[in-house]
Amino acid sequence: MSGQVELRIDRIAAGGAGVGRTADGRVLFVQRTAPGEVVRVEVVEQKPRWARGRLLRVLEPAPERRVAPCPLYERCGGCALQHLEYEAQLAAKRGLAADALRRIGSVSLADDIPITGSPREFRYRNRVSFRLRRLGQRVVTGFHELDRPAHVLDVDERCLLPEPPLAEAWGALRRNWGAGAGLLPAGGSLRLTLRTTASGRVTLLVEGGQGRGEPEALLKRVPALAAIWMNDDPPGTPALAAGDGQLEETWGEEAVEVSGNVFLQVNRTAAALLEAHVLAVAGPVAGLRVVDAYCGIGLHARRLARAGARAIGLELDPAAVAQANAAAPPGASFRQGLVESLLPDALPADLVILNPPRTGTTPLVLEALLAQPPAHIIYVSCDPATLARDLARLGARFAVHSLHCFDLFPQTAHVETVAELACSTT
Q: Where are the domain boundaries for CATH 2.40.50.140 in the chain?
């Protein structure tokens, strides 16, 4: 198979590409396509069982296709689904989760999994990371290109993902960092992460590069920035370089500090719906022992402790643990370290909440849960495939009682899934 082919797109795959089959039966992945469409494609990469193509023309468009609202979408790899109406995006994500859970985890409930959309389709991100490349005298900053992932596409404040204060700060930063971005640390490649609070105060975290640049001068030239943090290459613990290191954020009823790279969900309105769902699934917890694993700053543990639980949070990030302990209500405490090291001593428990990174939990975590099974587990996952893998491993002792998807990342192929498990054997 080579050159150009025509095919019908059957579904959306992980990563956002449409999937179809060529005449010889090979799976072909094509970005910017939609289920049901007939498209003409240039084959750009071939493997024994699959191939990748570049969309040339839509011969029969799907009813859900739209003109992407962002002027950068044609080349930008930051989004994957802007060419679909939002309801179609939700359907595609529900399909991604259901397919992984059914195929990898053998979860029967996957066919009926519901999904809750984001209250904001655009301007929802309170944190965005951009890549900065110095190419001789030229500076390019933005996201990786769609068809050339080794290249960076220049992205300014026209990007539709950041919350308005963050987008404005990004534009001001680009205009005021000096020739060759000279006020930033030296080096050919930097990672710049901007984060905004609910009140509109913005922080900048600079990762990579050499030296400090001139953060104080940069802060003066970009009044939209409240603080600048630095993380050297190789990365360590971010250090405050200039500005206010104690920015307060309001997260639901919780007061938290925005500092360094402490984790908070990027979509505050959709995260509130997910977090409310977790509390609803947990149900009455007064008198119960709860373990909140991969807890970050401990929002779930804090809330459950206020509802009468005895809650223990487990988290690797020392800054997050320090913040969680400082704000801990009676009944909540937090321990720092690897979850797989801390969990055995934190068990037994009535309820365990798991919120691991995209890679899922480790075998040691699963072994601890199987050895001392809690009555219930609530697993919050940002990757359906690793969730399905872990549910399959837990299947010997736990049954899946409910599943619910949440869209925290509109315009992308990412989806969050909350699984409720109950111990099925004693």
A: 4-65
Tell which CATH architecture fits domain 4-65.
Beta Barrel (2.40)
* Strands 202-207 and 225-231, bridge-based pairing: parallel
CATH number of 127-258: 2.40.50.1070
Q: Which two tokens stand for residue 122?
A: 């655009």
CA nearest neighbour of 310 among 348, 336, 269, 272: 348
Does the annotation count 382 as an active-site position?
A: yes
CA 342 – CA 352 distance, rounded (Å) = 13
Catalytic residue among 76, 79, 295, 382: 382
Residues with Cβ within 8 Å of residue 360, at least 6 apart in sequence: 381, 383, 386, 387, 389, 390
Question: What are the Cα distances from residue 288, in Å, to 284, 307, 375, 383?
Answer: 9, 10, 11, 29
Q: Where in the chain is the domain with CATH 2.40.50.1070?
A: 127-258
- The torsion of the CA quartet 157, 160, 165, 169, rounded to 10 degrees, works out to -20
Return averaged pLDDT per consecutive 10 residues of the chain, 426 residues in all: 86 93 90 96 89 94 96 94 97 94 87 94 96 92 92 94 97 95 94 93 92 94 93 75 86 79 88 96 97 95 96 94 92 97 97 96 97 97 96 94 97 97 82
CA angle 414, 387, 381 (to 5 degrees): 50
Cα distances (angstroms) measured from residue 369 to each of 185, 312, 418 = 45, 15, 18
The answer to whether 418 and 380 are in contact (CB under 8 A) is yes
Residue 267 to residues 128, 155, 222, 407, 417, Cα–Cα distance (Å): 11, 20, 25, 9, 15
Class of 91-119+265-423 in CATH: alpha beta
Backbone region of residue 18 per phi and psi (left: phi > 0; alpha: psi in -120 to 50; beta: other values): beta
Domain with CATH 3.40.50.150 in the chain: 91-119+265-423
Q: What is the largest CA-CA distance in the chain?
A: 67
Bridge partner list, 353? 292, 378
